[in-house]
Design goal:
Elements lengths: L2 H33 L25 E9 L9 E8 L7 E5 L1 H7 L3 E4 L13 E8 L1 H15 L15 H11 L23 E3 L5 E6 L3 E6 L3 E6 L2 E7 L2 E5 L3 E4 L4 E4 L1
Parallel strand pairs: 5-13
Antiparallel strand pairs: 1-2, 1-5, 2-3, 3-4, 6-7, 7-8, 8-9, 9-10, 10-11, 11-12
Helix pairs in contact: 3-4
């Protein structure tokens, strides 16, 4: 290769990594070191006041997807995600999620629990990503979510990075129920860890394609997700609907991506 031609390529690649990865991650970590954790302590885990304003009848079936910053310094880089469901016959939500410490204690990572559906996560206020409500159609989706949880291939494995972890699990559920039209935030480290050693899959929203090598390197493009580039498990990209720049550690810079749908 011509040395003169290689130098500009090296410079542009270095600038790309610096601007889209190193600076945002460095900013997030620096903010934590300077300010510390300003959120509530982990034991202050009362239900967060972010119940959706889109009210639903008491007998409606509801599915909600949440994301919240993880505990301590890890929260500067990533979020924990979960799905809360309430069948039409139920009076309260059940959270479907994965915990790493469950594997050590119970030999299984999956948890179906009745904690408050929008509870603080280690002091961080959860953000609602999706809400779907309705009747029989939503009840059917909930049944499929339960079945997908039973078929999760990594119930006996948990790795904070690059996965499989809690975000890998929610991505697995989203693929089982594409009606969620889910887009997980770029801070959901582990979402790009494709199951069963797959390299190419449809995106979670089924609106595009995703290429990933063990969740460490990859590329995805879709109508819902926009374009994302994964480098060492951290993703950056651009979203067009709604418009936003997506940066590792920081997350979305632009319009928030939340969707309410009723069947």
């Amino acid at each position: 290769m011509n040395t003169r031609k290689a130098r500009p390529l090296l410079v542009y690649s270095s600038l790309f990594l610096l601007i889209l990865y190193i600076l945002p991650i460095g900013f997030s970590l620096s903010s934590y070191l300077i300010q510390g954790n300003k959120g509530k302590a982990w034991w202050e885990s009362a239900s967060a006041d972010n119940t959706p304003s889109h009210s639903t009848p008491p007998d409606a079936a509801v599915i909600q997807v949440y994301a919240a910053r993880t505990g301590r310094w890890r929260g500067t880089l990533g979020v924990h995600t979960w799905i809360a469901v309430k069948p039409s016959t139920a009076m309260q939500f059940t959270r479907i999620e994965v915990f790493g410490f469950y594997l050590r204690r119970y030999g299984s990572t999956i948890s179906l629990n009745q904690r408050a559906h929008n509870r603080y996560w280690f002091g961080s206020t959860p953000q609602l990503l999706r809400q779907i409500s309705g009747g029989a159609e939503v009840d059917d989706m909930i049944d499929r979510l339960y079945k997908a949880a039973e078929q999760y291939p990594y119930d006996n494995t948990y790795r904070l990075w690059p996965g499989p972890n809690s975000n890998t699990f929610v991505a697995w559920l989203a693929r089982a129920v594409p009606e969620l039209n889910l887009e997980l935030p770029v801070t959901a480290v582990g979402k790009d860890y494709l199951p069963n050693a797959s390299i190419i899959k449809r995106t979670l929203s089924q609106s595009g394609l995703q290429f990933s090598i063990a969740g460490v390197f990859g590329l995805l493009a879709g109508i819902e997700e926009g374009v994302e580039v994964n480098v060492l498990g951290f993703s950056a990209g651009i979203d067009f609907s709604p418009p936003a720049i997506k940066l590792p550690g920081i997350g979305r810079v632009g319009y928030r991506d939340v969707e309410f749908r009723q069947f």
